[in-house]
Amino acid sequence: MPSLRAAWHSRNKRPLPESIQFTLLKFEKIWIVDGSTLEALFRKLQSLEEAQRGQLAGKMSTVIDLMTRLPVEIWFEENPKASDTNLSENILNLVTKRTLLLLDRGFYHFNFWHQLIEKKVDFITRIKKGAAIKIEQVFTDSYGVKDTKIRLGSGTKKTPFITLRLIEVRSGKTWHSYLTSVLDPHILPPYVVADLYRRRWRIEDAFNTVKRLLGLSYLWTGSINGIQLQIWATWLFYAVLVDLGDAVADELSLPFDEISLEMIYRGLYHFTMAHQKGKATDPVKYFADPQNRNLGIIKQKRKPNIKLIVAPFRDLQRGTDQFFFNNSLKAS
Q1: Could you give the domains of the chain?
Q2: Distances (CA, A) of 286 to 98, 139, 141, 154
Q3: DSSP label at 40?
Q4: What does the buried/exposed string (b/e) look like for 238-253 if buried means 16 or more CB atoms within 10 Å of the residue's CB?
Q5: Cβ count within 10 A of residue 178
Q6: Given CA atoms 259, 260, 263, 265 in this order, what sign does their dihedral have?
C-alpha cells in the first residue's frame, strides 16, 4: 500500500475534482468510512455442510481515501448485524488531526462526534428527520442555499448538546441537508460540502467492485482466518486495479472518475492475448492507445462539466442553484 500511495503522488497529469482540490488546502486527508455485510457462506465444502443455510459470513468495514481511492484500513466483524457505531473506537484510534471524515447516518452518535472534535478531526454527515435543533447563527439564506450554525441534542448523557453547521441545498423541489463540524463557511463553503458528500458514494462503488467484480460475494471457507484472508487479498487486488486505473487516467490526462475500473479489469484478458502475441508490453500504454478505445475504458459522458461554486457567502441566483445541483447531485 505505501508503494501504491507513492505511485499515486508521482502522477500529476490527471485533474482532481475541484471540491477535493479546495478541501485539501485546509485538510490533510479526506476519508470515507462505511461498513458492508458479507454474503451468505457457500455450503459446497464438506466443512460447511452442517452450517445453517443462508448464514452470513460477517461484516467488513472500510476506510477509503477519497483523494487516492485506495483503502486505508479494513476491519472484520463476525456479527453481520453489528452496528456501525461499534467502529467508533477503531476510527478514533486511526484518525489524526486535520482529517475530514465523510460519514453516513450509521455513525449518528453525539458522543462519537464530540470525541472526533476533541481530536481536531472534522466530519460531514446527514441530519436525521425530526432532529431538534436551535439556530444560533445564519450565514446564508437564499432561494437555493441555507447555511446556519445550530445547536443539536437534548443535553442528556446519550445526546449531549453539540454545535454544528446545518447546510441545506435545493435540487429542483427537493432540499438536501448536511451536518458538518466545520463551523467556518470560509473553510468549507456550502456547495463544497454538498459536492464532497455526494462523493461519499465512492465507497459504495468500492464495495460493489470488490464483491461483484472481484468475487468477494463468494466465500468458500467457513473459518474466520479463511474469510479474513479472502477479504485482505480481494482488497489488495482492488488497490492494484485502482492503481492501474489511475495510471491510465494520468496517461490520458483525464479525471479518474472518467475511467471504468470494470472495463479495465475485463480488458486485462485482451491485454494478455496481445502480450502473448508480442503486440503489447505495457498495460497502461495498451489501455490508453486510441486503437483500443473499443474496450470501453473511458466512460461515456452523461453531463457537462459544471464549475463548482466555492463562495462561502453569496446571494446565489435561482438559475445558478438549479443549474449546479440538478447536474451534480444526480451523479450520486
Answers
A1: 2-259 (3.90.350)
A2: 39, 51, 51, 59
A3: B
A4: bbebbbbbbbbbbbbe
A5: 22
A6: positive
pTM of the model as a whole: 0.88
One-letter identity of residue 319: G
SS3 (DSSP) at 91: helix
The pairing of strands 174-180 and 162-171 is antiparallel
DSSP state for residue 144 in the 8-state scheme = S
The C-alpha atoms of residue 281 and residue 314 are separated, in whole angstroms, by: 53
- Please choose, from the candidates 27, 34, 79, the residue with its C-alpha nearest in 3D space to the C-alpha of residue 58: 79
CA-to-CA distance for 182 and 193, rounded, in angstroms?
10
pLDDT in tens, 207-254: 999 999 999 988 877 778 888 999 999 999 999 999 999 999 999 999
Sheet with strand 29-37: strands edge to edge: 71-77, 59-65, 29-37, 99-103, 122-125, 174-180, 162-171, 145-152, 133-141
